Input
Amino acid sequence: MASSQTASTAGPLLQPGRRWWSGDGSGSDRLLSALGLLSFVALWWFGSLTSDFVPPIGEVLDAVPSFLTEEDIYADIADSLTRVVVSLAVAVFVGFWAAYLMARRGFWGLVVARYVDLAIGLPSTIAALLALFIFKRSEIGVFVVVVIACFPFVAITLRQGFLSLDRRLSEMSGVYRFGGISQIRNVTIPHLVPFTLASIRNEYAHAWRVVVIAELFAVNSGIGWRFTQAYDRFLLVDVALWLLVFIVLLLGTEYMILRPLERWVLRWRGGAQ
Amino acid sequence: MNAASTPAAGFDIDVGPVRKALAFLAAIVLGVIAWQIATWISDGWIPGIGEIIDATRDSLLAADTWEQIWITSKRILIAFVVSTAIGVAIGFASGLNRKAEAFFRPLIVIALATPDPLYVIIAILVLGTEESSGVIALTLALIPFVVTIVHGSVKARESQLDEMSAVYRLSRRRYLGQVLARQVTPALFAAARTSFAFAWKIVVLVEAISQPRGIGSEIYEQFRLLNAAEMIALALIFIVLMRLVDAIVFGGLERRLLAWAR
Amino acid sequence: MSPYIEVEGLKVSYDGEHLALDGVDMDVTENELVAVLGPSGCGKSTMLQVLSGLLRPIAGTARIDGKDMTRSSSDRPRVGYVFQDHRLLPWRTVAGNLELVLEAAGIPKAEWDVRIDRYLDILQIGQFRDAWPMRLSGGQRQRVSIARALAIDPAVVLMDEPFSTLDEVTARTMRQQLVELWQESSRTIVFVTHSIREAIFLADRVVILTKGPARLLEDVEVPIGRPRRYEDADITELESQIVDRVMGVWGYEEPAAA
Output
């Protein structure tokens, strides 16, 4: 058992003869990551050379300041952000109850499982077109599409949570007798929190992608809509700018808000896992 | 949560097939009812089940439908094979080698944060509206997912067998093939299956946007013509077909792979 | 005669900060069976890892038959290693597992079958030659693991608490078999354990380590004649002597005499 501490993780001291598992760490890593980033930039630069249509990086970067001072971009950013957050919340809610029913293995759980299955297998594009058709250009369409896309994954993850909760409860109930509310507070919720957070983390990026697709087709606002506008009008610098906005927004919120939040919640709950 | 009565793991294996079939039926019946209500509420704007069934039958019989499906399937196949191959290679490399991991990480992170339509747009901008740009866009969009799965499993492998291989000085070839590959086989399978699943879903988007022929563009076309029933019919046919392929090919493979089950 | 296994001033660290071994010395003559004894987590496995070339120390030497085991060179002697968990590849048959290490050790293919049969028979698992490891019991798997270690004709056999996961009856049988094996085939064995009695039963000498960061505490000869029985009074006495000596050092306080 002590031997599992070895080779793969530690520093330059632990070099078995062959180096085919993780080598040394530290400073060179950052350099290589920077290189990786640079290769992305290089690709872009190469693309702008070979094609008349790819805007050169310089041009795009120059356009950033004036872009950021345009007021109406923030309305669309806010729209997309709201849709992501609200849809995700609804998806978690729906997914939670779907998971609960499925974990109970009752008849309705099986029926719900079929719908979960259906929702997973529905391409977002088709859902978006349908939503556009049904809801015309109402914002509801976007919410529906994103919820349908995301709730099944939440349901699957939380179902695992419920199933493993069952096991714990039946093991414990013989020994300690927790009453109803106390049980929910002290056992059920802490147990489900990590699963919920995991599903939120996983589905956050997914929700963003689906929102863009939905906005591409179904509404006249938001980042997805901006993409179509820019692309249709051949405003290629704008396409690049909105792409940057999207990536920065997604990665920024994920690393600076979502992950710290997750860590904070888990710490407060005593790392229930 | 019936703590006492539910058995441990096992998913739906312990539920009788009759019950499952009944649930399936109930789901369909409920769905149909809900849909008909929607049709009624929307005054026929949303096509009724009858219309959809008719449209489905017509589409199934039309040769053009199958031609479109064939075109789309070829794209899916190419994108699936290439993205899985490249993704596995990168995933292995970055899972085994810290340097490779450091290098690829920013690329993969950005790729995962890029919305799907952008792959199509970029491909068109660089390659023009040729046949190949759609497939290339699709392939590129799939690679990060495969990489993530393979990389995760390679890194999560237990060090025990690595140590055994080191002590007995297995050659690199033997280690990779006999020890590592087998260990990550379930993840490789999952990566391939995921790649296929995303491929047929994203191809619809690719075709709807870039509109050369194919089921996706056909669906979009029907939508523009406001032929909702036809659109739904085509979507149904395509989805059912793809899921059948998944169940038969990957389901079958999975059973085979579990043959040496511990 | 220079020692067959020579460990001098060995210092090992996992993370560059904390030492697992803090200057350990140990000598083993050829064909000796030496037990390495220490409390859990003291790093006794670490020494085996250095000797097998898995780990590189920060300081000190580890040699087998005069060759430096910490450098990866191709003329390092072969080492057989029996882990605490069997570490067999579940997707290869028993014979397949042995073939894998035979190939890696450079043994010509023509000899493989002979060796496989021979060592499986010695360990009384010949009938499992083509079985899948996970269909065997824990004891049988450890036997395969031992057979694998022996089949390559190693210079030394390193064993890291190989019987600690087995039930007592199986473990007793295995200990007995190990001693017989060792006597018949004259190999040098280093056997790591945390059980004092096991160490005394098996070994010519017991090397006792301190708690981590570990150093050599004592080197105890086991003057008891073979064959030994696990319940021998001699063993019990030596055991309680050792227990007295290590209790304080390993950190267990005796309750004050009433």
User: Anything to note?
Assistant: Chain C has a mean pLDDT of 89.
